[in-house]
Amino acid sequence: MSDLTPCTAEQWQTLFRGGAVSPVEVTQDVLQRIARLNPLLNAFCLVDEESALASARVSEKRWLAHRHKGAAVGALEGIPVSIKDLILTRGWPTLRGSRTVNPRQARDVDAPVTARLREAGAVLLGKTTTPEFGCKGETNSLLTGISRNPWNLAHTPGGSSGGASAAVSAGLGALAVGTDGAGSVRIPAAFCGNVGFKPSFGRVPAYPLSPFGSVAHLGPHAMTVTDVALMMNVITQPDARDWTSLPFDGMDYTAALNHGVKGMRIAYSPTLGYAKHVHAEIAAATAQAAQYLQDLGAVVEQVDPGITDPLDITTGLWFAGAYQVWRTLSPAQQAMTDPDFAAQAAIGETLDANALHQLTQRRGALGSHMRQFMQRFDLILTPSTAVPAFKALPAGHSPMNSEAMLGWTPFSYPFNLSQQPAISLPCGLTTDGLPMGVQLVGPMFGDAMVLRAAKALQDGYPLLRPDVDQFE
Predict the structure, then answer these.
(1) In 10 A of CB 408, how many CB atoms?
(2) Residue by residue, what is the 3-state secondary structure of 251-294?
(3) What's the number of CA atoms in the CB half-sphere (13 Å) around residue 455?
(4) For residue 208, is the peptide bond before it cis, meaning its omega torsion is within 30 degrees of 0?
(5) Known catalytic residue: 184?
(6) For the chain, what is the domain count?
(7) Catalytic one among 55, 84, 165, 198?
């Protein structure tokens, strides 16, 4: 093969197992592609070629021993992976997209997902870009500048895991770790045309816990549901540092991927009952996905879950978290922050304990309602976002408020409040050539079922990648 970078993790594993290629060859190809394309995309804020190649050489030896002696290999042995720059990674600074973070910080701790990926033999390439403290659904910051969409460089890859998503779509590593506090995995997946999964809260251990509280999830980016499942098998392993994590369930997330959706009860909700403006082509693509699931044997009913728009709950809790970060900064550091983050913190400062308690009570009512609704249905189908990717602009380009932050993605944040598993899948392109996404949401703890249905749905679509080389 002349170019190994378009392969999925599953395909790379097959090639490694048969000895057709080595992890070193794959890593070299990916690093060369990063060197060519990252100046255009700004998906990576750190690339460690020396460390990646050293890891690849170790994996190459393990695969050789596996083929000749049957020795064990890791679950992601030799697979290049990137880490979002909100996640601690031993040996590298974690700057969180912020000029306020000291780059000379201690670098001796891996977050749980990073530790599990190393143990599984993954080749860690570097850190991907994020807005400051992951504070918004587009990826720009005063530290790293503007990240761009590989389908159209004038557009945003979304956020806050925009670097991770752009990297996967552009072939800069098959897998990436993102975080999702209000849609930050699923929004970029929809905008960049890949798969982004937000597992049930606590299914993937986190450390340290997010300052934005229990809306924040960790999850995979990949081009295929199968690759997502492979990564879930690794990053769901237990870690005692996260006191909010779920008991380890020992699930093999690949086991039932091909069992289909026959008999599944799916609530098709085009607007969730409150989304006022959904792009016509996205709405049509979601309706087509509903029909396809029905053709596969699912029982699809068009019905809304009966909730009102919880935007103010989401942003109220989020802005309060922003203020808690803000108050730890010195006046000099505060003067260095992204104006969007500063505006969020200023709103958060106005919320007193009673206001926060009321928001938490309303969140609890929403979560209870959704648990009861999911007694009737296995899954909910919605658009992933109400719009395709919009223009990529610098930090602070517009006044920051609830509507500006999340009003254009009404389908993502409710399921952070309810903590349910949700996945965004690519479902074609608009007439302007931008990706569209559909979302499947499962009941709490129904992660494997979400992946199973997502695999059945993704199998009905061609795997599309952007022609990034045209931009060189």
Answers:
(1) 17
(2) CCCCCCCCCCCCCCEEEECCCCCCCCCCCHHHHHHHHHHHHHHH
(3) 22
(4) yes
(5) yes
(6) 1
(7) 84
| pTM listed for this prediction | 0.98
Tell me how crowded residue 33 is: count the other CB atoms within 10 A of its CB. Answer: 21
Enclosing domain of residue 278: 9-471
160 classed as catalytic: yes
Amino acid at 373: F
What are the φ/ψ torsions at residue 434 (nearest 5 degrees)? Answer: -105, 145
Taking only the tens place, the pLDDT of each residue in 225-262 is 999 999 999 999 999 999 999 999 999 999 999 999 99
Task: Please indicate, yes or no, if residue 3 is contained in any of the structural domains.
Answer: no
1 within a domain of the structure (yes/no): no
**pLDDT digit string (tens) for 362-408?**
999 999 999 999 999 999 999 999 999 999 999 999 999 999 999 99
φ, ψ dihedrals at 466, nearest 5°: -75, 150
- 84 assigned to active site: yes
Task: Round to whole Å and give the CA distance between 367 and 381.
Answer: 18
Looking at the domain assignment, is residue 164 inside a domain?
A: yes
CB atoms within 10 A of CB 310: 23
In this structure, is residue 4 part of a structural domain? no
Residue 249 maps to which CATH number?
3.90.1300.10
- Alpha carbons within 13 A on the beta-carbon side of 367: 19
